[in-house]
Flagellar operon protein (Caldicellulosiruptor hydrothermalis), 119 residues
Amino acid sequence: MIVNNIRGITGGKHEGFVSTTPKQATESFAGILSSSLKISKHASERLKFQNINLDEATLGKLEEALKKAEQKGLKNDVLVLDGDRAYIVNIKNKVIVTVKDMSSLKDNIFTNIDGVLMI
């Protein structure tokens, strides 16, 4: 009976056990910075539909842009331009509202934007 309870310990993974080791420096700095930035369902769908990969470096840059916008007193949505991508980010809620590929921006109008940041 006791042997059955410790069967999984000899394998590479310890199934059923939770590590008590605290997270070390395995997370990148950009990952830590972006931990407070959320992605809306709409933006998540846009990312998938347009096959855009939102990596940790980009999330870190968006987080920095958010901080700069807050320092300038912006409080609502801002347009963040990063290369060939455009992001609408809500500063108050720290949410990426939508993402667009710059090639698809022709004839689009953005309204209710507090500012534009280029990163």
